[in-house]
Amino acid sequence: RGKKSGRGAGERRIAYDAEDMEKFEREDRERELTRQKEKQAEVEADRSEAVQEAKDMGPIKEFEEEEEEEEEDTEKVEEYRKKITALYKRFNPSKVGDVEGLMLKYKGKEDKLCAAIENKYLGQVREKIESIYQKHNPAKLNDVDRLLHKFKGKEVQLLEAIEKRYAKMAISEKKEEPEKKKKKTEKESEFEYIKPLLIKRMKPHVLKDALKDRGLSTQGTKKDLMDRLIAWQEENC
């Protein structure tokens, strides 16, 4: 009887343990389910908040975009004003005072106004650039189209840069001219004029010495030497 009583108590403990285990597992599942529901609720809340924020930001975004467009338009208008002013300053200074009035008159059509004024005066820019190159550097005439394309919208600044460059070159050349003339005069004074008849009577070695003194070639026949010396005298004496 004692053994049976002990075995019955053990079986009851096992039953209690199994029941506790089931209860623990059930509670654990309920807690996990609760956590999932809370997490899902947080996700839904975040989504709702994001949707609401997007709705709230809609008018603000539109306002900011409008502001950006207005800033771009303002920059373009200012660029047109500068171009028109530069063209008038260069080619028609009396019209500079009319720029603001024109900008108001053609408000919203500044691009067309600027294009019309450019078409009127850019031909003169080309003519002036070609004139400068024709006088100082003819080899650059073939580059005019390329330069005007490269500096489109800045043609007046291009012309001013070219004028400035070649004006400096002209000043430098003028400074060098007196020095060149002085050197030429000094060189000429080193040699006395020899009559052509006397040159023809010179012996070949004397002719060569005279040519050598003057920095000329001593190659050729006697006639070549005589002609060379006579030609040099015609130019320098």
Q: What features would you describe in this structure?
A:
8% of the residues are buried. The chain has helices spanning 2-91, 99-105, 110-136, 144-150, 155-189, 196-201, 204-213, 222-236. The chain has 8 helices and no strands. It has 237 residues and is mainly alpha-helical.
How many angstroms does the end-to-end distance come to?
160 Å
- Secondary structure class reads mainly alpha
List the helices and strands in order: HHHHHHHH
- Helical fraction equals over 70%
Number of helices: 8
Largest sheet composition = none
**Radius of gyration, in angstroms, nearest whole number:** 49 Å
How confident overall, as mean pLDDT?
79
Strand-residue fraction? under 5%
Low-confidence stretches: none
Number of strands: 0
**What shape does the CA trace take?**
elongated
Short description:
With 237 residues, the protein is mainly alpha-helical. The chain has helices spanning 2-91, 99-105, 110-136, 144-150, 155-189, 196-201, 204-213, 222-236. It is 83% helix and 0% strand.
Keywords:
0% strand, mainly alpha, 83% helix, 237 residues
List the helices and strands and how they pair.
Blueprint: H1 2-91, H2 99-105, H3 110-136, H4 144-150, H5 155-189, H6 196-201, H7 204-213, H8 222-236
Helix pairs in contact: 1-3, 3-5, 7-8
